[in-house]
Amino acid sequence: MNRRSFFALIALTPFLAGPVHASTAEAQQRLKTAVNEVLAVSNSVSSRSALAEKARPVLQKHISFETMTRRAVGVGWRQFSGDQQKKAVQLFTTLVIRTYSGKFTPGESATVNFKTALAPAAGRVDVPTDLIYKGSRYNVTYRMEQESGWRIVDVVIEGVSMVANYRAQLDASFKKGGATAVISSLEQSVSRP
């Protein structure tokens, strides 16, 4: 690279950083809105089942469950029929909402501290947070992608990706019996109390 090119690149750097900063700010604001809406729901209900029911539309607005399901299933997703994909998304959504709403006690306040958002790739933002709940602190990173607005596509809790965790389970089911086995596994998980 010659000197002129180098200085031209340096001169453009502030302009290149602008859109990335705007993207991270937009994604972080979207996440803050989602967290505040979920906390408001949590404070307005008295049971975990009510929390899951009332949080569902809020979470569906802010989380791309289709993307999460597709990534959790992995390469086998392409072998699912359209109906099987819809069924898998429906079951996975129910499982995730029920599992994670079951971790919280309605009315118990949680605090979420947002850290500086990162943009590891175009159209993707990672928002690290500290979740403080019942005296314990948890590192939670929300992975967001630009899908008709910023939406959550993965949640990494204490370094463990939710999508990768489910992928390990669903991949084993897929290897045993394809899409039918994955759907059956999800149905069994959802039917457990």
Radius of gyration: 19 Å
Q: Compute the number of helices.
A: 5
CATH superfamily: Tgt2/MlaC
* CATH topology assignment: Nuclear Transport Factor 2, Chain: A
Q: How many DSSP E strands? A: 6
Count of structural domains: 1
Assign the CATH architecture: Roll
InterPro entries: MlaC/ttg2D, Tgt2/MlaC_sf
Protein name: Phospholipid transport system substrate-binding protein
Keywords: Signal
Signal peptide: 1-22
Characterize the structure shown.
InterPro entries: MlaC/ttg2D, Tgt2/MlaC_sf. It comes from Prosthecobacter fusiformis. This is Phospholipid transport system substrate-binding protein. Keywords: Signal. It is a single chain. The chain is α+β, with helices and mostly antiparallel strands. It has a single domain, classed as Tgt2/MlaC (Nuclear Transport Factor 2, Chain: A, Roll). The chain is 60% helix and 21% strand. It has helices at residues 3-44, 48-62, 65-73, 82-101, 162-191, and strands at residues 110-114, 118-121, 124-133, 136-146, 150-157, 160-161. Strand 4 and strand 5 form a beta hairpin. Helix 3 (65-73) packs across helix 5. The longest helix has 42 residues, at 3-44. The chain is globular, with a radius of gyration of 19 Å.
Properties at a glance:
193 residues; alpha+beta; six-stranded antiparallel sheet; 5 helices; 6 strands; globular; disordered N terminus
